[in-house]
Amino acid sequence: MIRRGAEGGPVSSLGFVIRHDEKESMSSNNINETRPRVLFVYYTHTKQAQRVCDAMAEVLRGRGCEVSQAGIEFTDPHYAKNFKEFPFRHAVFGILPLLWPQLRRKTGQIRIPDEAKAGDYDLVCLGSPTWFFTTNMSLRSYLKSDEARTVLAGKPFAAYVVCRRYWSVNLKEVRKLGIAQGGEYIDGIRFTYEGGQIRSLLALLSYFGKGEMRERSLGIKIPPTNLKPDFGDQAQEFANKLADSLSPSVPVEEASPSLGRDR
Predict the structure, then answer these.
(1) Which of 66, 106, 212, 248 is exposed most, by the fewest CB atoms within 10 A?
(2) CA-CA distance, 70 to 68, in Å (whole number)?
């Protein structure tokens, strides 16, 4: 509902009076020059981090932002052969070679999309699945790169973690690396899977090996893995918080109600 301000013009949901001449300005092509630019940089193998990115990007575009999405590609020859396809050829041995390098916070070879190499963005949002308790090697490698410094220096950034259970170490590392590259951390969020310690692990390994949800693994009833059905609601709320932190010089549109449902 549009309210009227003291000057007779309508008031946006952010509380600013929109004068007639401002409305005409926003409807012109010049609006593209004032739209906040947002960059998402993430890594994903099972597409869960990408689903979160897509949901938040839709909200931010609805809020008038210009959004770029950049998925990092894991190309390191020591490990990439196991990541060429999904499901893994072997659920355990496909990821086990990464255990020691992950615990030592190693980096590896990656391919960085052009959008994440340079650009004057108003906000950067980093998506990081958890690998062996901490930030995955692909995103860590990006955050230690010269390209990341170019993008993050002097800019606000946020982060989201997609994980089975362990999220805090991952989020702290993303925050630390982003700040080390000159960024200003503003907020973070986690998207966790269902189930307790053992059953959620069995569910995830079953999915890694089969590429589909199963009700049992090793004769044990297991919960669904991957994002919970309400992840869209979380993503929408967080994206709106990020939009609120940006310049209010663009009109606010109502976000799509479809985001509250699993997709």
Answers:
(1) 212
(2) 7
Q: What is the pTM of this model?
A: 0.76
With contact defined as beta carbons under 8 Å apart, do 128 and 159 qualify? yes
Determine which helix (DSSP H) or strand (DSSP E) holds 154, and give its type and residue range. Answer: none
Residue 38, beta-bridge partner list: 67, 123
Name every residue whose Cβ is closer than 8 Å to that of residue 168 and which is 6 or more positions away in sequence: none
Token digits of residue 110: 């990656």
Cis peptide before 87 (omega within 30 of 0): yes
Comparing CA positions, the residue from 138, 112, 132, 153 lying closest to residue 45 is 138
pLDDT in tens, 122-165: 999 999 999 888 999 999 999 999 999 999 999 999 999 998 87
The whole-angstrom separation of Cα 45 and Cα 262 is 19
Of 174, 188, 190, 171, nearest in space to 228 by CA: 190
Higher pLDDT, 93 or 71: 71
Band (85; pLDDT cuts 50, 70, 90):
confident
CA distance 67 to 246: 13
Read off the pLDDT band of 92 (50, 70, 90): low
- Write the class of the CATH domain 35-246: alpha beta
Q: Where are the domains of the chain?
A: 1-34, 35-246
Percent of the chain with pLDDT over 90: 52
Cα four-point dihedral sign 45, 42, 188, 232: negative
